[in-house]
Write a structure and sequence with these properties.
250 residues; alpha/beta; six-stranded parallel sheet; 9 helices; 39% helix; binds zinc ion
């Protein structure tokens, strides 16, 4: 899906994005080149992350399922969604989940000036922090697209950028619980960071139901592999330095 593009090169201070359709085509490249950015953690763990919420239509069902499974996860919230549902954002935090930032609006940072990126980040941080009482530690850019200015700006705000190593591809119109499980299984390795969504606000309508249906089966999969699911905070990510922060070019 074209909205899921990602970083191919930060090394020269430049960014080149490759389009999907095939997550597996670029995942190994990204994981090899940027293991810390991708969120590769402790081999016995798997980090479970949800983007794009909180959403009154879907997040409560996801929360209930997580409670049944006994999982704690990381929620990359959108400030715009938090503003519409601040109580729900607080419920996510009160349930013990980790609160992270996905920006205020779901915009591609490559199309925005550094000033706009900064504005969006501040708005998102303010919304998430005031609703949940938590200060996000992690940032995941909308669509997984990065730019060098965005990395510096987020780092200046004390945020560490984390993408993912494994995607459920649950944003697709044809996503089913089986397809989500199959996609996660295909990319699963010890220390994986799994991308899922608790809202369809940027996905195909109703796509979150595939995610919800997949969760108990993902629990079986993780158990089979001997992996303990948890939030990024428990994932043992060691390097808090943004990539190429020594580069003078932004
Ligand atoms: Zn998103």
């Amino acid at each position: 899906m074209s909205r899921y593009w990602t970083l191919a090169s930060l090394a020269a201070g430049s960014v080149v994005a490759y389009g999907l359709p095939s997550v597996t085509a670029w995942d190994p490249i990204r994981v090899r080149a940027f293991p810390n950015l991708s969120g590769r953690g402790t081999p016995s763990q798997v980090a479970v992350t949800f983007d794009d919420g909180p959403d009154p239509a879907s997040t409560p069902a996801i929360l209930a399922c997580l409670e049944q499974l006994g999982w704690t996860a990381t929620f990359f919230m959108l400030g715009a969604m938090v503003t519409k549902a601040p109580t729900l954002a607080a419920e996510v935090a009160d349930a013990g989940h980790e609160i992270a930032l996905h920006g205020h609006d779901h915009h591609n940072v490559l199309t925005r000036s550094p000033q706009r990126i900064e504005q969006d980040l501040r708005r998102g941080l303010d919304a998430v922090t005031s609703a949940t009482g938590r200060t996000p530690r992690w940032y995941r850019p909308p669509q997984g697209i990065l730019s060098t200015p965005a990395l510096f700006i987020t780092a200046r705000h004390g945020l560490r950028t984390v993408l993912w190593t494994d995607a459920g591809r649950d944003w697709r119109a044809d996503a089913t619980p089986s397809s989500v499980v199959a996609s996660v299984r295909a990319g699963l390795a010890g220390g994986a960071t799994v991308l899922l969504h608790d809202s369809d606000c940027t996905s195909a309508a109703g796509a979150w139901r595939a995610t919800l249906g997949a969760l108990p089966r993902l629990a079986e999969l993780f158990s089979e592999r001997g992996l303990t699911p948890g939030p990024l905070a428990a994932h043992g990510l060691l390097d808090d330095t943004p990539p190429h922060s020594h580069s003078g070019s932004t």
